[in-house]
Amino acid sequence: MDDTPRIGIVGAGGIAPPHIEGWLALGAEVDILGRTGADAPAERYGLRVVDTLDELIDACGIIDIVSPTATHLDIAKAAFARGRHVVCEKPLAVTVVDAQAISDAADEAGVRVFPAHVVRYFSGYEQVHEEVGEVGTLLELTFRRTVAAPASAWFYSQDAGGGLIRDLMIHDLDQALWLAGPVVEVSATQDPPAIDGVVQPPVSAHVALTHANGAISHVRADWFGPDTRFRSSASVVGSAGELSVDTDELSGAREGYLPPASAVDPYRAQLADFLDAIRTGRDARVTPADGVAAVALVEAAYASLATGHPVLI
Fold this sequence. Notes:
With 313 residues, the chain is α/β, with parallel strands linked by helices.
């Protein structure tokens, strides 16, 4: 592909700026689809606004989807049909069927799709992954992620592709898979429960995962009030030691929905990995199968909430 890629951004919500800044830092040219809210990032970053999705896809070599989850499948398929690679903000899709459909459609078109699970690129989590083999047999993993509840209403509608587990906890469900491997059983609780598919903050969810290797992961996520300071943590206990990471120990902690800044921008690192994977043909750190697997855990967690019982995978 061209040494100066042109990126088409679809979506203008809170996650769009880190993606835009990451691409610009890599020297890419960036356009944005002219939807509601697009004028602000376009003006802030000097982006060209493109009127229609078809025009954006025609103009760009990579489409970066940062729109609400329920829109991902149709946008990705439209991009694949024109031979475009796709970066897709997590979760890859609302359902496992749709997530697998995105993966399959990319394969059929001979292009690449990259689920954007950015926590894999945060330095503390990278270090835990690099060292996890040194703690012996994995016994217990614990993850927690607490943020201010997002502003957009769609985040609270599970039918629209939102929900605490699907939108926020999926970061740590992916971490559990990355560190401890496949899961065979999922059990979930949430307080307060969703009513007619809509959850209202403040809300907390807890998911217990039983991995195929016998390890247990405990995953908690919280959407709290607007003044809540972002915090995430992870610990791994094995037969020969323990590893942990906590954003309270990092500089740059702040109030809000996004994590604190770090010395190496994880969004830039993520996009650089995807770009190099396109250029070289190698696998990126996050594969389509990883994206599908994370959605499968989300789907199992919501099934457990609905039935009140563990779900076997």
